[in-house]
Design a protein that fits this description.
With 291 residues, the chain is α+β, with helices and mostly antiparallel strands. Helix content is 21%, strand content 32%. The strands form two sheets. Strands 1, 2, 3, 4, 7, 8, 9, 10, 11 and 12 form a ten-stranded antiparallel beta sheet that branches. Strands 5-6 form a two-stranded antiparallel ribbon. Helix 3 (134-143) crosses helix 4.
Length: 291
Amino acid sequence: MRKLLMEKVQHVIAEYTSRNQSDYYNDKVTRKKESCRQRHAEIVKVDATGKIQRITHQRDETQSILYDVHYKYLIKHGDLLYLEEEVENRSGVFYKDKIYEDREIEVKRDEGPEEEEEDMICEEKDRVTYSYDRLSAVQYAERWWNSYNPAYKKFENDCTNYISQCLHAGDAPMRGYPTKGKGWWMRNQSWSYSWTVANSLRWYIPNSTIGLRGRLVDDPKELKLGDVICYDFEGDGRFDHTTIVTGKDAAGEPLVNAHTFNSRMRYWKYEDSTAYTPNMKYRFFTIVDDA
């Protein structure tokens, strides 16, 4: 089993750097290469390591496995070389040393209560002033992009929890405890909707008038390190994912870190994601100091 998986990963690595069109490994390789081509970037080198997380044995000698593949892409964009990383979560089915199924586990929609946007703004008495420390936010994003800070609860859909931690590491103050529909906070094994639900944070950031707040911009190039991008995968008005800007490519386009399917320095459009649809919508927020 391990040998077969390693052979497959090595084949994928070769596909990423080949100049020929890929038709292997679903269409992810093709989509990633096309995304690079459209912005005049090149995947120069790819390394990967795998780790089996769980094996389930069936009576008929079938084995079901869950495993991760950690990819590192050296990307050349103009005069810039940078390292992008991601962890693919995959599942496979083996029978008598043959692979009968192998697929990437798709991103789940970030579910949350329907009414969370209605009462998220706290009263003026909660006012605190702060200066957003972008460097500290990015350093936190880099430290924990592929692991989980034990000081916080870990969620199955962890993207917004991770981004909230990054923002808090940049000195954005929590407020609103203990009401889940108010403010932005995590405390005593409880948390606000805005801390953990992508759609709630998307509405909280531009509507907050004190503490953590942000300004909507139209052009992603206007974003700075430590700013936030929100993603509506289906284009239906409910936002599903959140990332933080941790770098820029040679054209000044954001590169982002994220959780759930962990990645760092990823091109912001997510065109190579299993969650990508032609209807995807984005919102770009630059964090505003409250000082």
